Amino acid sequence: MLSLQSLYLKQPLFDNRIHYVVWSQGSSSMDSTAEILEDNLEKILKGEGLEVREFDSVPEQVKPVTLRKSVCYIVGAVIFNSKDEVLMVQEAKRECYGRWYLPAGRMEERESILEALQREVKEEAGIDCQPITLLLVQEQGPKWVRFVFLAEETGGSLKTTAEADSESLQAQWWDRESPLPLRGRDILPLIDAGIKYRRNPWFPMLQPVDFPCQVICQRLFLTFISSNGNTDTSDEHRLWLLMSSNYATPHPSLPIALSVNAFDTIPRAVHRLVKECVPSSSMHVHTCGILGVQHNGRIPGKTDGVCFNTLVLLENSEDGAEISSPPPLEGDAYRWHEVTNQSLRAKIIQRIKEESVLPVHSLY
């Protein structure tokens, strides 16, 4: 495991065995620890954030990411009017001149994700907007991440050809049936996702939260459910969460894995950490989706990172086989924590059962 201090000042790694002993002291201390842990888990489930202090899965030496140098973040907006028409902009770039696309563009230095979204929509479409929810995240590892929002118009007016500039030629509402030369068909699933969410939201509205991070990483809400794998009735199942045994953190915490190389997508980083914990296991690792997104970006080169709070389910790969406890872990870097709070357990199982999470699409 690697702390922020040891990562950036190149100090030795911690011996994580000490913290495991601390957790075993006194019942009152254990009760307090359990309360803090449950409170933090509730925050993650609500889409809130937690400070990123320690890293658990570090495949190689890493450095803080820098926007538009080592990472590229794209924001895109799906906006409908009262007629269910979607907002489109006509491109001014030479390589796609005259074609149509959703309002989208790269984030700039010192911007939050929401600020970038509102700026791009204003520049390209002429209107003001307010985000309703993150709709999905697309990624090609840490080098390219696109945050797609469902948003609504709050003011301004559609950009006309008389206002054409280097950002766009004009903006229009599209009924999705009339012929329109598109810059790319990759936006069609995004529009469909917006339509689906408006009709039947399948996850709670989610906005990025302001927590600084120096790298691209994910806090793993990694679960294991006992019995026959049927999650229809949460009361009949026991549930465990994978916890970090990092003694540098005063309380038990969810493990945090870094994405460092160009191909280190969210699912691959999850698989890497699981492989570290249970290298001999044949369990299936299912990355359900995202519970929250943490970003700050106010200090270029120091807070350009993003932390994804990611819900993961570890499943038995053998159909029909019953497993009453999670697979044994190798070493003492991690431990299993059984969630005995009935309400909390039910919430987690429900989110898994209903796939009530922000979708993440890895494009590799």
Automatic annotation (TrEMBL):
Q: What EC identifiers does the entry list?
A: 3.6.1.58
- Return one GO MF term: 8-oxo-GDP phosphatase activity
Q: Which UniProt keywords apply?
A: Hydrolase, Magnesium, Manganese, Metal-binding
Q: Which InterPro entries match?
A: NUDIX_hydrolase-like_dom_sf (IPR015797), NUDIX_hydrolase_CS (IPR020084), NUDIX_hydrolase_dom (IPR000086), NUDT18_NUDIX (IPR042970)
- What CDD domains is this protein classified in? NUDIX_8DGDPP_Nudt18
Q: Where is the Nudix hydrolase domain?
A: 70-205
Which Pfam families does its entry note?
A: NUDIX (PF00293)
Which cofactors does it use?
A: Mg(2+); Mn(2+)
- In which family does this protein belong, per the annotation? Belongs to the Nudix hydrolase family.
Function comment: Mediates the hydrolysis of oxidized nucleoside diphosphate derivatives. Hydrolyzes 8-oxo-7,8-dihydroguanine (8-oxo-Gua)-containing deoxyribo- and ribonucleoside diphosphates to the monophosphates. Hydrolyzes 8-oxo-dGDP and 8-oxo-GDP with the same efficiencies. Also hydrolyzes 8-OH-dADP and 2-OH-dADP. Exhibited no or minimal hydrolysis activity against 8-oxo-dGTP, 8-oxo-GTP, dGTP, GTP, dGDP and GDP. Probably removes oxidized guanine nucleotides from both the DNA and RNA precursor pools.
Show the PANTHER family listed in the entry. 8-OXO-DGDP PHOSPHATASE NUDT18 (PTHR22769:SF56), MUTT/NUDIX HYDROLASE (PTHR22769)
Name of the protein in question: 8-oxo-dGDP phosphatase NUDT18
Q: What is the protein's species of origin?
A: Sinocyclocheilus anshuiensis
Q: What is the lineage of its organism?
A: Eukaryota, Metazoa, Chordata, Craniata, Vertebrata
